[in-house]
Write a structure and sequence with these properties.
TIM Barrel; 26% helix; eight-stranded mixed β-sheet; alpha/beta
Length: 260
């Protein structure tokens, strides 16, 4: 598939630095505070996670349970959006291993996918659908917000991507699809046209095979500069990172056009 110039997530040579749940090393993950910090640091795109509330709202949160990142208890799907709004989304964040909790009690709340899209109207986003039940809500919001072209939908679960099989949606490969292509690479089999537009397994042969098919490879979760340099040298496109500011400082320039 040809790269879409308007979306660096789908460009083989753009080398985007993608803020993993925002600048999540310095602010509570998947919150507006983390996304605002990442944008201010110059991140090229966001990665975020979506689950659904009891009343079907697409809530930006990674875990199925509330305990790790909020002061709530129980499953996300067990509470309505109104109830989830009452929780402290900064309660669990500690940048120093539990010595301090600088965002606790500061009024930071869980947010919805639509609110993130609205707050950052030009930011490309990698939207991770964490459960099949969330896909229709994600699909609806992407269309309503006019955000389809700047978003790539991802999930480890094949069944969570069924709503995004056809254009105009772009999606990443699921875990079973990655495994299938990886086996083909090991056996040196030529892959046919791919039903997805993005991959994330960084062996040299795998990256080369993906690039030959016009499919950029992005890698989770890279926070060490030495690792990032090695992966970029292999031909990896994007780095999904908790420390976008650090990755931006060491990112190599994009390759020159062949006709230059």
């Amino acid at each position: 598939m040809a790269a879409r110039a308007s979306n660096p997530l789908l460009d083989l040579d753009a080398r985007p630095v993608i803020a993993h749940r925002g600048a999540s090393a310095a602010a509570p993950e998947n919150t507006l505070a983390a996304f605002e910090l990442a944008a201010g640091q110059g991140a090229d795109a966001f990665e975020l996670d979506v689950r659904v509330s009891a009343d079907g709202a697409p809530v930006v949160i990674h875990d199925a349970m509330l305990e790790r990142t909020t002061d709530g208890k129980g499953p996300v799907r067990g509470q309505t959006l109104v109830d989830l709004r009452l929780l402290d989304a900064g309660a669990g964040f500690s940048p120093d291993g539990g010595a301090t909790f600088p965002y606790r009690g500061q009024g930071l709340r869980l947010t919805t996918l639509g609110e993130v899209l609205w707050a950052f109207p030009r930011m490309p986003m990698l939207v991770e659908v964490k459960e099949p039940e969330a896909q229709e809500a994600v699909r609806r919001v992407l269309v309503q917000e006019g955000a389809v072209e700047r978003c790539v939908v991802a999930s480890e679960l094949q069944e969570a991507l069924e709503a995004f099989r056809d254009p105009p949606f772009a999606r990443a490969a699921s875990a079973p699809e990655i495994a299938q292509l990886y086996r083909g690479v090991l056996l040196r089999r030529r892959a046919a046209a791919l039903p997805y537009q993005l991959l994330s397994v960084p062996t040299r042969r795998f990256v080369a095979a993906a690039r030959a098919l016009g499919c950029p490879v992005h890698v989770w979760t890279v926070n060490e500069p030495a690792t990032a340099r090695r992966l970029w040298a292999r031909g990896v496109a994007g780095m999904v990172t908790n420390v976008p500011e650090a990755m931006l400082k060491i990112r190599p320039p994009p390759p020159l056009p062949l006709n230059r």
